[in-house]
Amino acid sequence: MLTFAYCRVSTEEQAAEGFSITGQADKLRAYAELHDLGPVTVIEDPGRSGKDLERPGLQKLLAMVEQGHVSNVLIWKLDRLSRNLGDLVLLAERFAKHGVGLHSFTEKLDLSSATGRMFYNVLGAFAQFYREQLVENVKLGMQQAAREGKWTNRPKTGYSWSNGRLVPNADAPRVREVFRLRAEGLSLAAIEERVGLKLSTVRSIVLSRIYLGEVLLNGEWYPGAHEALVAPEEWERANRTLMTEQRRRSRHPLSGAVRCGLCGRVASVHRSPEGRLYYRCRHRGAGCRQPARAAVCLERAVLLGMRLLAEDAELQEAIRRQLAAGPPSGVRREGRRRSLGTGELRQRRRQLLDLYYGGHITAEGFHDEEERLRRQQEAAEAEERRRDQARTEVEALALRFEEVARVLQELDVARLWAEATEQERRILVEDLVEEVAILPDHLEVQIAGAPRLNVLLSEVGLREKVSNSGVGGST
């Protein structure tokens, strides 16, 4: 039977509080010698968090305990084993089952008495409280930093740290050149060759709002305290939907926006022997029976959708009512089916802990129920975030709809389309058209900021080739 000293330290603890594996091991060897516990074998978990039990050193120790090779386990402090109360309770039960004595140098624990076991649980609760409070403090600190305009991640290309702030560095001119070339219409690959940056870096630069002087936290951008490298107008020109290379090389302005309504694949543009362009599902002949459709007819469908949004007041009001109703009904129903909210689940976890302290449930029962409630709470919190995100998206969609409707009312879209070049038509589609879906008995046009609009084939000069009514979404 052996005496083991288990030593753990995270990188943050060693930096902030001076903990070290060597220091813990030396103190525990002295403790073992003082209490005549015999030679000590040290098991280490350097740089490991105490949030759970998935640590190589700890798993090795537990395997030795299960095999009956351990007589005593020495630790510097209880939270070296775990900062999770449920895990600490299970470890104590496992050690007791195999006759292993647990010795804490700092807390002087004696688990052979009821008082010692109660003290063990209290210390475990404080360890878990400390860990959860630390997580909350880190999140609050990052949120506060974002509100103050501070960047909380690694500096991106074009910036360096100076006295805790982002400042432009020697790469800043190259970043400005990337935006200038992108605004002029150069592809990302061409920009890569011009400025000497990797393609992935060029794409990351073009997409990031840090160069507008903003900072990012949890997917949201806030006004930053650092210097912007590009003006908003130039950033918008460079990010005009960031067309794919295929779409830029296309011979038709709708390329990339047309999809098969049956299988969801992007439809590719082809030219007939007579020189007419048409769209065909990429899966056509390999499982999909979607008919090909003339490109000119799809253009008519897009123009019809734009005209309806610009001129049909009744349709506009119907869209506004739909957007004002909030997220889709499926999201609301799912929220109603969940009977327990996050607040109630937190309360149940506290009640469960009280039951355990009162001796009304076993350690195993406590752990199982605590794990179930924890997972329920995480799922409820995720659902709340999803509903909040859905509401945010609907609100953004409503604002986008009003913007697009106003633009369309000010434009003579049919005349503009007729007189525009292919490049100008592509820009118009990228700004105003989300998607055109081809279905056997109708088309679905989605203008930016608006729900899908059903267009009958006869309205744009197409014939119904397959009888398949009812496929696709509603108007």
Just name the CATH architecture of the largest domain. 3-Layer(aba) Sandwich
The fraction of residues in strands falls at 15-25%
CATH superfamily of the largest domain: Resolvase, N-terminal catalytic domain
| Strand order across the largest sheet | 2-1-3-4
- How many helical elements? 17
The average pLDDT is 78
Net shape: elongated
Would you tell me which CATH topology of the largest domain applies? Rossmann fold
Instruction: Return the CATH class of the largest domain.
Output: Alpha Beta
**Rounded to an integer, what's the Rg over CA atoms?**
32 Å
How many individual β-strands? 15
Poorly predicted regions:
243-250, 329-338, 466-475
Helicity range: 40-55%
Number of domains: 4
Distance between the termini: 76 Å
Query: The biggest beta sheet, please?
Result: 4 strands, parallel
Question: What is the structure about, briefly put?
Answer:
The chain has 17 helices and 15 strands. With 475 residues, the protein is of the alpha/beta class.
Report on the architecture of this protein.
By secondary structure, the protein is α/β, with parallel strands linked by helices. The protein folds into four domains: 2-143, Resolvase, N-terminal catalytic domain (Rossmann fold, 3-Layer(aba) Sandwich), CATH 3.40.50.1390; 159-238, Putative Large Serine Recombinase, Chain B, Domain 2 (Hect, E3 ligase catalytic domain fold), CATH 3.90.1750.20; 247-320 and 409-460, no CATH class; 325-399. 51% of the residues lie in helices and 15% in strands. The chain has helices at 11-17, 21-34, 56-66, 85-97, 114-147, 172-183, 188-195, 199-207, 232-238, 245-249, 295-311, 313-324, 329-337, 342-357, 363-410, 413-419, 422-432, and strands at 2-9, 40-46, 70-75, 101-104, 159-162, 165-168, 214-217, 220-223, 258-260, 267-271, 277-281, 293-294, 433-438, 442-447, 453-456. It has a four-stranded parallel beta sheet with strand order 2-1-3-4, with helices on both faces. Helix 4 runs antiparallel to helix 5 (114-147) and helix 6 packs across helix 9. The longest helix has 48 residues, at 363-410. The N and C termini lie far apart (76 Å). The model is unreliable at 243-250, 329-338 and 466-475 (pLDDT under 50).
